[in-house]
Amino acid sequence: MEAENQAKIEVEMEEGKTFLSDAFDYKGAPAEKAKTGGWISAATILGIEMCERFTSMGIATNLVTYLDHTMNQPSATSSTIVSNFSGVAFLTCLLGGFIADSFLGRYWTIAIFAVVEALGAGVLAISATVPGMRPPPCYPSQTVNCVKANILQMGIFYIGLCALGMGLAGVKSSVSALATDQFDHNDKKEKTKMEFFFNRFYLVINIGTILAVTVLVYIQDEVSRGVGYGICAAAMITADIIYLSRSRKYRYKKRSGSPLIQVAQVIAAAIKKRQLEFPSDVSLLYEDSSPESRVHRTNHFRWLDKAAIISDGDFGKEGSANPNPWKLCTLTKVEELKMMIKILPIWATTIMFWCVHAQMITFSVQQAASMDRSIGKFQVPPASFNVFFIGGIMVTLALYDSLIMKRSGGSRGLTNLQKIGVGLAISIIAMAAAAGMEQKRLKVIRSYKKTPTTTLPLTAFILVPQFAIVGIAEAFIYSGSLAFFIGQAPKGMKAISNSLFLTTIAFGYFVTAILVNLIKKITPGKDGIPWLASKINDSRLDYFYAVISVLGLINFGVYLVCAKWYKPNSSHGSASDDVNASHDEERPGDAGIS
Predict the structure, then answer these.
(1) Is a pLDDT exceeding 60 seen at residue 586?
(2) Burial per residue of 425-461, b for 16 or more beta-carbon CB atoms within 10 angstroms, e otherwise
(3) CA–CA dist 216, 247 (Å, integer)
(4) Taking the CB of residue 563, how many other CB atoms lie within 10 A of it?
(5) What's the distance, CA 213 to chain centroid?
(6) pLDDT tens column, 217-262
(7) What DSSP state is assigned to residue 372?
(8) Contacts of 183 by beta carbon, 8 Å cutoff, 6+ apart
(9) Separation CA 582–CA 594 (nearest Å)
(10) Which of helix, strand or coil describes residue 16?
(11) Among 220, 221, 415, 556, whose Cα sits 20 to 30 Å from the Cα of 582?
(12) Angle CA(311)–CA(312)–CA(315) in degrees, nearest 5?
């Protein structure tokens, strides 16, 4: 059977040359196995992801200080802007995936949106460089007469930010999938190379992240924002040129259409036929999928089954053999949608973690900016404290790989649901620790007769635990949830599973923005100052962190119930990856806003 399956994929067209029937070269002909794809092609594709991460992380992690100190925005407003930007960017990944699947294809989506991201960084560089594009400086000793950025200045800034977010969404939605396409999944040797490549290349990609939060952030703070943002634009253009230079060596796959269309078709057909009665025999429901890809019917969400009821007009007036997909869907397509719906409770309970994550690039950076960051004569940039966050991720993954996976022979370890649970639990501890560290900072502030406007005589390195602990939590959350979504998604919707994961990040940032605005409105006390005041030193971040910790605890309880309720997919033709097994093929892509 294995030999037959291999024969379906590989076609011998010339003596000594093997061609792939499911992959094509740049001319549209079957791809020659020896001359296309492989490690070098995949590395070139993921190189553009490394530069994308360098750009987005380098700008996003330090954006809150730019809004605070250059655009003269209130502390809470700066946090909201950064949270909304990150949320919209990751949510737009769904649109990027739709464009790639339905119109441009993965190759051109990456090429075009990399340029868009470079243009966004370029606009931000202009905004930070041209004097008229930012308000007059506001020094720490000033308590009044600080002029905020006007509508034009913020407008130019938002244009650059929107272009940056669109570029991020386009690149991220397709880069991992196109890199995966460079390996033949039906060839055991190439599949092994692919797994080894992705697992090891994760460390290389994180070099881009570390460079972003150290070197690039330092250039922004000590040289100029314009130069820093200009470097980001140049990095994306350079990576895109290198990416395009290997166009003849890539393997390409035909566009299969967006899974989002399939979802819409099933729902539309079910609604149109909501008044119809179910047939007495379920075998009468429409099905034309091949036996090997067919999914058995389940009793969950039975109202969706009506999309597979055959009725008059489903096949058109001329008696076409193919039905109108908006009127009649196969039972397999219906069941695939049901499988995605089953994932949603787990998806929803992971959102809270990304709310915790958002604090690392917003309020935690503002905390560091108010404290003593010196190492001898060297001043560590506030946003560079995220290096401890990245370090927490990398050390945790390395220890997990060496202590757990190798001891278990690489086949067992924590299940994906267990990883998610561990990550959620650790994130609660992280926010509790952050609240404790903030109380220490506030104690120093209270020792002053009036709110200090200079650097506090308290080392910012007491914030290292909250950065590192959130990094440890993300190592479990990221690998567990991404592998869970990919493993439990049906074959026909694998393309949407990565985007579904990225939406949890998006909604986590949106929840943060909502919480910030809500806390500002409901917490003003007798003195009229809310917990999240205009200045970080007037705020009660310890209360805010405590609220997030409590919400995280409640969310953790809900997650445990959802995880216990969830039953792994076992239907024939589905993605049968066991939820209680580790996934050696996990793709640890972004480790943050990356």
Answers:
(1) no
(2) bbbbbbbbbbbebbeebbeebeeeeeeeeeebebebb
(3) 30
(4) 18
(5) 18
(6) 999 999 999 999 999 999 999 999 999 999 999 999 887 677 888 8
(7) E
(8) 37, 38, 42, 190, 191, 193, 194, 197
(9) 24
(10) coil
(11) 556
(12) 95
Q: What is the DSSP letter of 104?
A: I
Distance of alpha carbon 388 from alpha carbon 568, whole angstroms: 36
- Contact between residue 463 and residue 359 where contact means Cβ atoms under 8 Å apart: no
Nearby residues of 446 by Cβ (< 8 Å), 6 or more positions away:
none
User: Which of 41, 4, 70, 79 lies closest to 365, judged by CA?
Assistant: 79
- Dump pLDDT digits (tens) for 512-540: 999 999 998 888 766 778 888 888 888 89
Cα–Cα separations (whole angstroms), residue 415 to 202, 560, 583: 21, 14, 8
Q: What is the pLDDT of residues 41-57, one digit of tens each?
A: 988 988 898 999 999 99
Phi-psi region of 28 (alpha: psi -120 to 50; beta: other; left: phi over 0): left
Lowest mean pLDDT among 104-108, 197-201, 411-415: 197-201
Write down the pLDDT at residue 574: 39
pLDDT at 589: 34
Sorted by sequence, the CB contacts under 8 Å of residue 210 that are 6+ apart come out as: 387, 390
The residue whose two tokens read 């590395």 is 43
Report how far apart, in Å, the C-alpha atoms of 291 and of each of 21, 295, 296, 298, 489 are: 21, 9, 10, 17, 19
Q: From residue 360, how far is each of 90, 328, 424, 471, 474 by CA, in Å?
A: 17, 48, 16, 10, 12
Q: Is the pLDDT of residue 585 over 60?
A: no
Beta partners for 17? 14
When the pLDDT of each residue in the chain is averaged and rounded to a whole number, the result is 83
- Which residue from 331, 327, 312 is spatially nearest to 265, judged by alpha carbons? 327
The label of the residue with tokens 């109202």 reads: 303
* CA–CA separation, 177 and 516 (whole Å): 35
pTM beyond 0.85, yes or no: no
Closest listed residue to residue 480, CA positions, set 492, 491, 488, 470: 488
SS (H, E, C) 546-576: HHHHHHHHHHHHHHHHHHHHCCCCCCCCCCC
Kindly report, residue by residue over 299-338, the tens digit of the pLDDT: 888 889 999 998 888 886 665 678 888 999 988 888 888 8
Q: Per-residue pLDDT averaged across 468-489, rounded? A: 87
Phi and psi (nearest 5°) for 448? -90, 150
Q: Which residues pair with 19 in a beta bridge?
A: 11, 32
Residue given tokens 């000590």 in the structure block = 222
Report residue 502 as tokens. Answer: 């990225």
Residue where the block lists tokens 């979504």: 485
Residues in the chain: 594
d(CA 195, CA 198) in angstroms, rounded, equals 5
**Tokens representing residue 78 in the block:** 């700066």
Angle at 566 between CA 564 and CA 567, to 5 degrees: 115
Scan for tokens 């034309």, then name that residue.
288
